[in-house]
Structure formats: C-alpha cells, structure tokens
Sequence to fold (335 residues):
Amino acid sequence: MTTDPTVPRPRTARWLLRLHRPALYGFAALVIVLAGLELALAGPLADAAAAGWRQFDACHTSICSYDQAAILRYKDYYEYATYALDALPFLVAAWAGAALTGRELETGTARLSWTQGISPARWLTVRLVLPAALVAAATCLLVWLHHRAWAAGRGRIDTASGWYTLVTFHANGPTIAALALAGLAAGTLAGLLLRRTLPALVLGVLVTVGVAVLAQQLMPHLWPTVTRVTTLQQGGIGSAIVLDQGLLSKSGAHLPMPNCTTAAACDAAFAKASGYYTVYHPYAHYWPLQLTTTALLLAITALLALASCLVLRRLTGALRAAGTAVEAKDALVTA
Fold:
C-alpha cells in the first residue's frame, strides 16, 4: 500500500462528488422539495388553514360552513415535512455506511485509492468533512424553514403541533442537524468496521437510532426543571415537557396520580389532595434544551469520528503488515 511520489495527487473532493453523484442529486432533490413544502406551509397553506379556523370559531349554529379541506391539508403537509426532516439523519447514516465507506472497502476501491497518491488519513478526512459540510448546511436551512412554518401556524391554527411534541421539538432546532452529523459519523464507522455494504447500512442506522434515543432520554435532564403547584380546579400544566406530575397532599407530600377504577376510589384519592404538582420545562427552556442537547450530540459525533480514525489506522496497519509479509515471501521464492 505504498504510494508513488511521482504520481500527481488526485483531487479527492472532486472525485468523491463525482463518485457519489446519484446520492448528491437525490439529496439535493429532497432538500428542494422539503424547502418548497415548508415555504408553502409558512405562507398560503397556513393562511388558508387559519382562515378556516376563524370561520369555524365564528360559527355558533348547528350548521357551519368552513374550509375543512384547508385545515386538513395543512395538518397533513406539516406532518409530511416534519417526519421527513426527522428521518433525514437515518438516511444519512444508511448512505454513509452502505456507500461512503462500506461499499468502497468491500469492492477494493478504497485500497486502490490508497495506492494512487491518496493516503488513508486523507481519504477518511474528505469522507467526513465534505459530506458533513453539505449535510450541516442543508439541515440547518431546512430546520430554519421548518421553524418558520411552525411559527406561522402558532396561535392561528388550533390543531398546530405544540413546541414540546417530540417530532416538532427536534425538527424546529439544531438537534436534528447535530443528529445528522452523528449519523454520518456512525455510518462511516460501521463501514470501516464491517467493510460490507448491507451490514454496514444496518449497523449505521441502528447506532444512530441508539444515539437518538440516548439524547432524548438525557435531554430533559440537561437543564434545571421548574416545579409548579396548582389547585385541583386549575388542573395540571399543559403545553410543556412534563417530567413528573401527581397530586399534592394537604401536608405537602407528593402522591401519584390516582388509578380511578371506580368513582368512589377516585373521590377518595382526591379528597386527600389539595392540588397538583408538576415538574416540567416551560417554553422558556426551549433554546437551553436545544443547545445542550446539540452539544451532547456533537460530542458523540466527535467520539464516533475519533473511533473511525482508530479503526482505519488498525485496518491499514493490518493491510500494510500483510503486504510486507507477501513481499518477503516473494523475495524468498525469487532467491
């Protein structure tokens, strides 16, 4: 795996873009379609749905005429755009594991590149940096457009998704961009470990799913919560990320929410309570939660990238040792 110093070094970035042209075109088409859909959601679709809700709220008779189709259309298209954006990191992980590293190692293209003036370190660096720049730029644009589309319906459309719902929370902020970078690093590592296309695709997606689940579990605990007590008449807290909720006894102790199997059991449980307690994150915690979760995901991405470098060093070391052994054997046979 030695390189010839007389051979000019190829332009690795340009060659990488040409090699993965179909994926690049597909990704660009997906970004354009999602951007157009989110622009429509922020403009005419949101305006039509808001007008439909105004018609519905103004109607006080048994027979109402309102634009139900516009309301349903906005809801459906919003879900399409949100779920597609949330799925993007897993698509990136699948591509990185299958095509970016797994297929090239399986077919021997990577090893051939290492003999044509491209060092393994440079080969890996380009495969991490160039796709990361494209993925980060595209996802940040889509996240900004999605947040703009969500804000256009907030307070105007009664069925608009709350900021605290899982899919909207991540699609509206930088956590989805950081998860896409983690997916890229996870897929790259999977390809280097398995060196086969389909297994690397599966492993890259599974690792990304694990990272997403871990980040979601840790996210509510990355910023101090707020505890609020309300009366029984006021009820619990809505429109928030709730971590714990229950009844507050008259002595101030926390009681679990009653399991109302019968009306008598329910009345007996509430008779001991003076109100509700809720441990939650209000909307004011949205950006602190986004930024701390993003920092966590970027740290995981850095660890996955470091692991990729270590695996590549071990792989190329083994190949170099095997090549040296073959050369020594050939020399003995010739002698």
Notes: The radius of gyration is 27 Å. Residues 241-281 form one domain. The chain has eleven helices and four strands. The mean pLDDT is 85.
